[in-house]
Amino acid sequence: MKATEAVDWVDPARWRATPAAERLRLLRLVQANIDRYFDELVAADCRAKGIDPANPADAHQVGTGVQRVLVPVPVNVAAAIDLYEGLVRGRPLQPLAVTPAGDGRFDVRVSPRGKDRLLNSDRSDVLRVVGEPRRVDPYAKPGGIVAVLGAGNVASSFEMIRALFVDGYVAVHKPHPLNEDADRVWEKVLQPLVDVHAVAFCPADEGRELTQDPRLSKIYFTGGTGSAKAIMEATDTELVSECGGNNPCIVVPGDRPWTEREIRHQALQIATIVTISGGSICGRTQTLVTSRHWPQRRQLLDAITVALRDLTPGSSTSYPGVDKTFAAFRDAYPSGRIVQPADGRPASQVMVIEDVGTEGFALDNEAFCQVMSEVALDVPPDAGTFLPAATEFANDKLLGTLAATILIDEDTKKAHAATVNRAVSDLRYGAIGVNTMPPVVWTNPYLIWGGNEEGRAFVSGRGNFGNLLGYENAEKSIVVSGFTSPGHLIMTSKRGWLDLSTRFARYAIRPTWTRLFALAYAATRAGFRRAGS
């Protein structure tokens, strides 16, 4: 239906009056539908990305597609089911812990919980809030109509679930033109919500008509900064947006040398996040921040090159326009090293630019493709000196405020706990990963995802998505895991990645014990496969 008809269809008053038990029933119908249309969603995403599901050489890229399209919405549905089960029972879902964080802030530990604790036993997911923690029930929120504008790189919009079940809105979804096929499948998945006038869909070319409809309460947008600014100029409706940026990974020199195994693990983790989905994800690491004087700096950089070339399968870059961005980085840094993965996948070259300095093109631009740069700070290689300097650099010199990572071995982290805590507090980013990559924040409905730009120029967006428990004044998300956690996002084989992704998606859709054991088995097998297999 047209955008105007879609806005006509949704009924915020009816949704507001829908009791928790009925919303819970609808969530379970949607959950069953995701299982039902699993294969159709994967096929639609593969068509959009030019991936051949029947080609073994593309198996890992199919696996990434599975994670891209079939994890974000299901984990939000499953969490919303937990939320509404609590509302129905009259026992609201509670945080795991609340502790003071200094400066009038509090850390609310929200996950992992339930069966997920077995998958992530060494992980802690925290929502940092400003002031005494206060929660707002979904039914206490004003509601209204929200337009959800789908992203181009991800063929699913978890913002729909969050808008409906966390924020109390009804939703009209407009897909990105690249994902219209997938959107038609999602319309079938969400049909129970369409039937009760809580959701409607409109065509990809109806963006202007939708965003300028005066009946909208908010617009949820994921995409480029330029597009977000254009929307804000064309309408007075509040825009909640996530627009990416140049995300740093701060590599803290150890009080002791890292072992060969630790170097290899971190190289694999970095190589995976740099190349997954052809580099076209908002939360990817783009800039490594190191100490020029760290004795193991060269060893880590060489290990990353080996991981990119020999240990992780190549991923094709397919997002429109990124070839021009890649060329612009190559023009700006002709000495940058081009790494071709050994499997020879088309359009899978990675550009590695070492020691780019503390000013310039690589700092001021988001790549959104397979480009990784390194900034070697002229700072002594001890955590107490380096980490504050790296934090200041990341805050002041890099584009955007979306996501940052700190890599620090357990011994050094323990010895410099106050310094690490200060850095986590001082980093002006919406998502902070300590020994894990921030995209784990993106799908977690208990956390928030978005920039941290209060009082700064618009780059990474305004507002945030998530916050299942409804805390006011949420400032940032913090995820801490073990230095070499088995739960880290590491892709070392093609078939293994597909198997792992499929089992993970099935578990995300319906987190049963049977699916958990199947996921654990797939993870074990994936660890024994090689990059070319």
Structural commentary:
The chain is α/β, with parallel strands linked by helices. The protein contains 22 helices and 18 strands. The protein has helices spanning 3-9, 12-17, 20-36, 38-49, 59-70, 72-89, 116-119, 159-165, 180-189, 191-195, 207-211, 225-234, 260-275, 297-311, 322-332, 361-364, 383-397, 410-415, 417-426, 439-442, 494-509, 513-526; strands at residues 97-102, 105-111, 124-130, 144-149, 169-174, 199-201, 218-222, 238-242, 247-251, 285-291, 337-339, 350-353, 371-377, 403-407, 431-434, 448-449, 465-466, 474-480. The strands form three sheets. The chain has an eleven-stranded mixed β-sheet, with helices on both faces. The protein has a five-stranded parallel β-sheet with strand order 6-5-4-7-8, with helices on both faces. Strands 16-17 form a two-stranded antiparallel ribbon. Strand 4 (144-149), helix 8 (159-165) and strand 5 (169-174) form a beta-alpha-beta unit. Helix 5 (59-70) runs parallel beside helix 21, helix 6 (72-89) runs parallel beside helix 8 and helix 21 (494-509) runs antiparallel to helix 22 (513-526). The longest helix has 18 residues, at 72-89. The termini are far apart. The model has no long low-confidence stretch (mean pLDDT 96).
Features:
533 residues, alpha/beta, eleven-stranded mixed β-sheet, five-stranded parallel β-sheet, globular
Mean pLDDT value: 96
- Principal-axis shape: globular
Number of strands: 18
- What gap, in angstroms, lies between the N and C termini? 45 Å
- How many DSSP H or I helices? 22
Task: Give me the side-by-side strand order of the main sheet.
Answer: 1-2-3-18-15-14-9-10-13-12-11
Radius of gyration: 22 Å
Strand content: 15-25%
Q: Please bin the fraction of helical residues.
A: 40-55%
Secondary structural class: alpha/beta
Spans where pLDDT lies below 50 across 5 or more residues: none
Summarize the biggest pleated sheet: 11 strands, mixed
